[in-house]
Amino acid sequence: MKIFVDKVMIDYRRFRSKDGDYVASIVARYSLTFLEDRNVISFAGGLPDPSTFPIDDLKRIAVEVLDSYGYDVLQYMPSRGISMYIKELIDFLYRVRGIKTSMDNVIVTTGSQQAIDIIARMYLDEGSYIAVEEPTYIAALNAFRARRPRFIGIPIDDDGMKTDILEEKLRELRSKGEKVNLLYTVPTAQNPSGVTLSIDRRKHLLELAEEYDFLIIEDDAYGLIIFDEDKYVPPLLSIDYSGRVIYVGSLSKVLTPGMRLGHIVAPREIIESLEPFKQIADLHTPAFTQYIAAIVLREGIVERNIPRIKSIYRLKRDAMLKAIEEHIIESAWWTKPIGGMFIWIKLNVEIDTEKLLQKAFSRGVIYVPGKGFYHNENGFDTMRLNFTYPTITEIGIGIEKLSKVIIEEINQ
Ligand SMILES: Cc1ncc(COP(=O)(O)O)c(C=O)c1O
What we know:
Layout: H1 18-30, E1 41-42, H2 55-73, H3 83-97, E2 106-110, H4 111-123, E3 129-134, H5 138-145, E4 150-157, E5 160-161, H6 163-175, E6 180-185, H7 199-211, E7 215-219, E8 245-250, E9 261-265, H8 268-282, H9 287-298, H10 301-327, E10 333-334, E11 342-346, H11 353-362, E12 365-366, E13 368-369, E14 382-386, H12 392-411
Parallel strand pairs: 1-12, 3-4, 3-6, 6-7, 7-8
Antiparallel strand pairs: 2-9, 4-5, 8-9, 10-11, 11-14, 13-14
Helix pairs in contact: 2-9, 3-9, 4-5, 4-8, 10-12
Bound molecules: pyridoxal-5'-phosphate.
């Protein structure tokens, strides 16, 4: 017999905790819900190109893992992660990102989203200050918002976060007897803007962390997919000699997001402090995906896959930049990412991109309005465009459609 529980008329909201109510309201307000439809060209998603997933290798290795480690794979495992995977990850991070680390400095998380969440739980109090880029990654903002901190927004330009403005704001706070506790940055091929923090600003940021005594969360989600290799900049972690950086990484963009493999690299004391939060969240990240990833890394599958991903994405980025240059209005400013998955456009006209979206949708193209990426809901005339998921043909057609919608709106 089926029980239709949803037919019982109870207002479950009255059972909610205050925190639960608050977080639900944040997510309802700031989550990215798209007008998805097969017949529109979508620049809205944040999805990797599925043709880059090494499905045949994963199939073979999944069987191998069950054959060789079956009982361990299906068992409870330590919260920190499985040693076999962490060892491979450490070698991998050194080879591909120049990060030297050891077993004591790593914790495996269920995607890097969980890493951001547990760091926020450990290091943010209600009312404490966190500095973020303007704009920044929305799901990190929501994880922070849930802790009810005060935000300090730092604008960006082509070289990433403007660290001179950060310095001014830090000084201003100090003069009031207050300070920033945490700074969150996606310094390399940022989501949503695509910009990369220059080496000079990286050094400046690290100096400021020392001088004004705060910790930096370096979210390196796109650090492995830099296509313009002559413009490569090292991760903050690899040039930090003062123990200020909590590095957050992920295999989502170079293997598959569905395996949910993220990691934190940080000083031992920080890793130890995070472990209880990881345990509370989910005991541990699934052993099955960790074992598979250990073998994937050992066999060099990700390293062989990265150049392929880069060459596909480079072509798509170039196609989108070309189409934007040809079609998008002159007043607009847009970013020229050296990697990652996104281009950011600021129209510099009185158009609210949130309102424009419905019209764009009716013409067969969608994007993400920029407002949601600002802690203070600024950026009404901005939008994020994803170039990795659509095909090259769709990119050309989609940008032309978008341009027409914008011009029509201006001429109205
Ligand atoms: C900047 C940034 N950080 C973190 C994440 C979370 O990724 P995952 O949890 O899949 O590692 C994303 C996902 O798109 C992202 O763009």
